[in-house]
Amino acid sequence: LVLGSAPSRNRADGSFSEGVTCRGVLKGGGAIYGRLAISNVGPADGDVELRLKVALPNKQTHEVRVRKEGGDWSWDKRSLGADLGEASWSTQVRKASIEARNDKVAIKMQVSTRIRPLRPLGLDAPLPRGDFHRTTILIPHGKVHGTVQVLESGEEIPFEGWVHMVHNQMNKMPFKLAESFYTALDVSWRGTVAMWAYKATPDLGGGIRGWLLVTEKGKVPVWEPKVTVRPMNTVRDKGCGYEVPRLLHVTAPDTSGLKGVIHGDRLTDRIDDLASLGSVERFFVERLSKPWSFRHKGRYLLTLPAEDPEVEQKRFKGKLVYTYQQLN
Q: What is the rounded CA–CA span in Å between residue 77 and residue 295?
């Protein structure tokens, strides 16, 4: 595992970008979010941002963001990681460590798992020769231990929980790859339920490609590296005019027979994704794309035929967060 930014050909590609995203929950309540993002797109030239946010069970939230321009940070040649000075991110097979600090807090965390990394196939099937879009599920479901140190008082607050971590890299502008993205995720002590898919642009043939994962107690009862997603029950958003699907039908190849539905029961957040960008990035992106995200509290039901026809089919059901993002 190494960063895609390491090869010189990618560092010179003006369309290259990659990121590692970590999401999870904490024991006793609370949540954790981490993101390492590297980009050559627009005004960026190997620029990197590491963001780490911990919402503790005591309702306190601590967040650190560190940004560096290309040349002001280094990558790790022995792992998928980066050193930004005030922050670092290192991922190896079945483990990871993240640290970040500012003038108020210092956050450290370690992640471990028994489950090997997974890589879905076929996500870049419609792309022209030389273009790529690669995904690696680095930590399908892992245990996290960490601390938040409040620098003014010296207080050190421990936390633990469970996370899911994914790495993506591509050398194609997102709006040239996809019209929209579909994600669904639930992380708990039991395991992870995750689905990710995108609808290709018309010049790439359209169609929706994605993957689906279920882990339980350190095992992987469902891993579908190639699923078909059919959106339904669309509702027009009055603000931006986008049609937002509230129901997804998910099917896998006939070899497994998996079928499922994901319901977006209640819209909780409408997010103008341009608002999170800096002024220079926004100036560039808003001329090419107008991304909005719609986050829902939802539920899922997955069915998987048993190998023995006399045995009842396997069922997986529960609650999750479903997000639909439209770029144009």
A: 36
What tokens were used for 275? 């608002």
Look up residue 64 and give its two tokens.
């650190």
d(CA 227, CA 250): 7
pLDDT tens, position by position, 161-210: 999 999 999 888 888 889 999 999 999 999 999 999 999 999 888 889 89
Residues 6+ apart with CB under 8 A from 123: 133, 134, 135, 198, 209, 210, 211
Quick one: which of 145, 149, 49 has its CA closest to 107? 149
Q: Phi and psi (nearest 5°) for 115?
A: -95, 135
- What would the two tokens of residue 12 be? 């010179």
CA distances from 237 to 147, 267, 274 (A): 41, 11, 17
Separation between Cα atoms, residue 79 and residue 74, nearest integer Å:
12
d(CA 311, CA 304): 11
Give CA–CA dist 138/217, Å, rounded: 17
Give CA–CA dist 193/164, Å, rounded.
9
Maximum average pLDDT range among 30-44, 203-217, 286-300: 203-217
Is the confidence at residue 284, as pLDDT, over 60? no
> Are the CB atoms for 166 and 34 separated by under 8 Å?
no
Tokens standing for residue 227: 């699923």
pLDDT, average across residues 241-260: 90
Question: Which of the listed ranges 82-96, 269-283, 284-298, 309-323 does the model predict with the highest average pLDDT?
Answer: 82-96
- A 10 A CB-CB count for 194 gives 22
